[in-house]
Design goal:
Shape: globular
Low-confidence stretches: none
Protein name: Rhodanese-related sulfurtransferase
CATH architecture: 3-Layer(aba) Sandwich
Strand content: 15-25%
GO molecular function: transferase activity
Order of helices and strands: EHEHEEEEHEHEE
Keywords: Transferase
Largest sheet: 5 strands, parallel
Helix content: 10-25%
Pfam families: Rhodanese (PF00581)
InterPro entries: Rhodanese-like_dom, Rhodanese-like_dom_sf, STR4-like
Structural class: alpha/beta
Mean pLDDT: 90
Distance between the termini: 32 Å
Strand order of the largest sheet: 1-8-7-2-4
CATH superfamily: Rhodanese-like domain
CATH class: Alpha Beta
Number of domains: 1
């Protein structure tokens, strides 16, 4: 396990930086105050699966960045705060590492920091064949489980 204080994030504008899925896991495992926030939609959690952090004795926070139909979630910050997310480190995760950038920026600008983005997200961007699962949390071999029924 890496020392969470030694995790070097790729520099980014407006948030603490980008980290790999393995760095995210190491940070969550090594820092008792670190929180994972999954910003995908409920449909994605159900269809694709969710990170399994039970072995770390932590539960991810689930807060949709956008709601069904691609509508921005106007209660996003309120949902974070009501889940107890107030300071970091906070690790934001989405499907491919794009929505989580915006979430990390908003959290940082609202005083929830340090906030990180997980590069490649949960299952990465589609490859040239249009198929995902070529990068990301799942491909890195990090624990995950089927989403809620």
């Amino acid at each position: 396990m890496s020392d969470p204080a030694r995790i070097e994030a790729r520099p980014a504008q407006g948030y603490a930086g980008d980290i790999t899925p393995q760095q995210a896991w190491d940070l969550l495992a090594g820092d008792p105050t670190a929180t994972l926030v999954d910003v995908r939609t409920e449909g994605e959690w159900r269809a694709i699966g969710i990170p399994d952090t039970a072995s770390l004795e932590k539960q991810p926070v689930f807060a949709e960045w956008v709601q069904a139909g691609g509508v921005p979630n106007p209660r996003f910050l309120e949902e974070l705060r009501s889940a107890g997310v107030s300071d970091g480190p906070i690790v934001f995760l989405c499907r491919s590492g794009q929505r989580s950038i915006a979430a990390a920026r908003l959290a940082t600008s609202s005083g929830i920091a340090p906030s990180y983005n997980v590069l490649e997200g949960f299952e990465g961007a589609p490859g040239v064949d249009g198929v995902r699962d070529q990068q990301g949390w799942k491909v890195a071999g990090l624990p995950w489980t089927a989403g809620p029924a």
